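Minutes, project check-in
Item: structure for the 330-residue chain
Input as provided by the requester:
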Amino acid sequence: MSEAAHAWLAAGLAIAAGALAAWLLPQVLELYTLINATVFASLAVLALSLALVWGFGGILCFGQAAFFGLGGYAYAVAAINFGDSTPAVPIALLVPALAAAGLGYFMFYGRVSDVYLGVITLTVTLILFNFANSTAGDQWTIGTAPLGGFNGIPATPPLNLPGDPGRQLAPEEIFSVAAGALALAYAVSRLLLATRFGRVVVAVRENELRAELLGYDVRLVKLAIFTVGGLLAGLAGVLFANCVFVSPTMFSLSYSAQVIVWVIVGGLGTLLGPVIGCILLQMLTSWAGTVQGVNANLLLGAILVVAVLLLPKGLLPTAGLLLGRVRRSA
């Protein structure tokens, strides 16, 4: 089977799985569990964004939380001002994508090294976190939307039917949207990597100098994949804003670090691995929060150490290797 056919098959299976989850889970899960599942789906999109940027683009970005938060805040501000989520969603995708494009332009065309790229993206995240926390007071508004300081924007309007502000989606319907968005984001990412552009992205990751000598504009390729990652992180922020609420926590170091852990545990260089890693670790963290005496952050750190030492390739690649050995022995 050719690479393109394999990509189309994987994309089709992802969309089918997303459609099945969107239809089945709202019928069998309680509301609290379903809201948690919506959170997991939104954070899985965030993990997918870094899986694309780092795993295939070779760009270790500590700032995915910045684009995640920008997506959430842009959605909340636009939805409050327009009174309709229909224009708010594209605005919330455009803002982090433009922010990623602007930041990436100065980094990649400025020939910033990988180490300093990580420092810059982390610094931008911290600046946004501190700025969002300092926006308390009536003077900090965008149109009619108060930014709320450390309290955030708890009155974020939920998604509504396109063009019908009076028909807001129920939590069950928002989960269906989140599951569909995750499946669609995975499918588009999978198909993108199967294109000529996707192969060039991987070539730049493997040997940047050789790709440049072959005539490719390495800076433009990196900028493009970085912008796509920012857009996906913004989509995660929109979904998160509809199941929790928008606050400066979205810019926090916690999310910046967790998304890296999800990618490492799930499997760097894969798309599905970080999604699985994110969902499994979020389920484990939620369970740990209900157990007295268990520190969820300490548990997450221990899992990262164990994963790096015992499963350096991540869950999905290791599972693939074990399955291959079983097939050969059989």
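Outcome recorded: Residues 3-28 form the longest helix (26 residues).
No further action items on this chain.
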